[in-house]
Amino acid sequence: MNVALQTTKTAHGTAQIAIAGHRAVCDPSGALYLEDDRILIVSDLHFEKGSSFARRGMMLPPYDTASTLAALAKVIVRYQPASVISLGDSFHDGQAAARLPALYAAELAVLMARREWIWITGNHDPDHPADLPGETFTELAVGNLVFRHEPSKQACRGEIAGHLHPAAKVVRRGQAVQRRCFVSDHSRLIMPAFGAYTGGMNILSRAFHGLFDVQAITAYMLGHGRVYPMVSKALYL
Question: Is the pTM of this model over 0.85?
């Protein structure tokens, strides 16, 4: 079958897809793992969002970075990737990396040790994060794939992007359920936001118009320990 993306269910609650010839696993955490390449991708970590809001007088519980780091550590232990790509908006603002408490910086350094770490720049973090290792790119090509923070407005086969914090809504037994999701139409894939305070935007909303063939999309909804693939006709705005 000559399409850019195909889907199968796998064990451990994941969904396996093939994107432009690369096998990938959609993990319930919101991370994507390229099996043959041993690359783990996460998007929109938004470290230090809580402290960023606090600086503007909007108080949020100051636990987002700790929660996000814990989730990131868990998925890194699960897959043991050779490389990690953080797909933009890794930090909530340009000073957030410098604001990172020493304890969290040390935890992040442990996760980064002995593996390649790529920071893709985002609209919230356009520069290399202060005092942290790794390489920084505006976009990166790996084989037939291209990684960038914001999805291109042009058709782009093999694109993996973030930025839009996709979420999908379904209705079952008269009750609506909305969850963060991966979304693809067999050409590009947009990642869910990984960060603890990030939320999601319905993939049928105006922000996604023109990015996908709506009739061809599949939403890979993140449930409790399981990914649920949902075709377009099952989705609600």
Answer: yes
